[in-house]
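@channel sequence for tomorrow's demo:
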Amino acid sequence: MAEHLGTDRFLDRYFNGSLISIPPFPSGNNLLRPRLKGVTWNRGRFAGDYVIRQDTKMWGNLFSSRGYREMRMQGYIEGEKTTVRLTDQFQNAFENGIPDTFAFEDLLVWLFAFRGFPTEVQNWKDLYEYFLQNELDLQNFPLPYQGRFQLTPDRPWPETQSARPSDEQFLTELAPRLEAYLAAPPERQATGDGTAKTNPISSDDAVLSVILNGIAKETSHSFLLAGPPGTGKTKYAHDIANFLTNGVESRVLFLQFHPAFGYDDFVEGFRPVEIAGGEAKGNGVTYKLDPRHFLKFADRAKDDPENHYVLVIDELNRGDVARIFGELLTYLELDYRDKEFTLAISGNTIKLPRNLIVLATANPFDRSVTDLDDALLRRFIVVTMEPDKAFLQKYLTDKMVESRVLTRTLRLFDILNDAFAAGFGHTNFLHVRTIDDLADVWEGRVKLGLQRALFHDRQKYAGIKDEVDQLLKVDEEAEVAGEGQSAEG
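structure tokens (generated this afternoon):
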């Protein structure tokens, strides 16, 4: 189907909210997700509706924490997150994955419900052939799909209507909760100057899809972006926090762990307080037990249960995570949210609210810090962030970087990702526009680190350095002429 119509165009034709005058999200996305055969959504704001709208595109759903990984492992999809392709094995798996209760007639009803079909269509066979030939420009479905995409023998043709119901009637029947929400939406959250913030991340971004999927399925509300430096972990964390909170800064707390950071900084601890002893006696100091960053933030989240509150922890593994979290570790799990537990120092009892999201970043290849605690990792959904050559190439191409600079940049990217065991991130190259910029990356960001990494293999380092030196030689004639020749030219 996608070969003839294109996935987005197919979805817009049959599964877009505009079909019944539902306005899109600010992102422009407006995907309708229906439930068939009397099944309604069973949780969330729109529980009881037969259809919801979703601020995503269909391909974004591939990148769920479970679905994407499992399909890759089983050989159903191939390529990286930016260039996913379905394999031949996917078709058979798709066929086997559709339940026996599926009836193609029910899908046809949805596909034509909002636009209708020609009056000459008088039975299921007519409608089936009309859909194939006039909507999809096909004579038949590909063989692997024919097992389920067929008509049920002897199914009676229903009574049809000659007049289309109004959009209001459709919405009232299919999604009364969504209809009420659209009639009186909550007020838009604004920044301090009264203007609403825009989301810097696309709603169908691959990494964001993993986070949204974990929250929606209640798999976890704790996530770890893990990867080598230069893969965009910290920026992603900021952008995702902004997305989850609709840009409301008071619902985001940013912390960075380091070796001196402890439980008394994170949870609760004694803090010095100056006391006045009078003119004759001078000032003194006493110690007061206070809640610290995490507890204060959790209290704010508890008082506003309808909204997400996001704690972003940068450089998670640069601190002693087991000591910093203490007894909170267990209660990060969703099964233990809203359950009382006792704090170690004060003896007070608290609960962690379900709307508190923890989003952390870590470089698991940094040998200058201790390994992440296994007990902590079990409570996080880990999203691996890897150097992305395809992203780098597209980004620099969009910035109109000359081909000879682009070619050399991609070559240096490859060299460094072969040389560093953990890889070398693409964000290190985002500001490259000239050969001089590329040389600055090599001299300022790479050279010393590579010397350290290959300290015991000086011959390999010398070989790489020679290759890079050749790569960074400026072709003066090409520079003067402004020619976009490649590095090999």
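heads up for whoever presents: The radius of gyration is 28 Å.
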